[in-house]
């Protein structure tokens, strides 16, 4: 295995990790921001009020994007194994 192949594999893995984190975290961040704006507008200073909407949105993101994320990760794993087989044999 050459360093170029190793770097290419690591770059692909890091891109997949960043993409999956973005898919799961960004909806929760946007929901938290919206709840914080509502709290600031209504002057309700309850710290636990934003937890449930963020949790529900994150669970909804997992439900909606879970199949896609699993398929994307499986495709990457298959490509890694195919590249490994090509390097060995």
UniProtKB/TrEMBL annotation:
GO terms for cellular component: bacterial-type flagellum basal body; plasma membrane. It is a multi-pass membrane protein. InterPro entries: Bac_export_3 (IPR002191), FliQ (IPR006305). It comes from the Bacteria. The chain crosses the membrane at residues 12-39, 51-74. GO terms for biological process: bacterial-type flagellum assembly; protein secretion. Role in flagellar biosynthesis. PANTHER family: FLAGELLAR BIOSYNTHETIC PROTEIN FLIQ. This is Flagellar biosynthetic protein FliQ. It comes from Massilia atriviolacea.
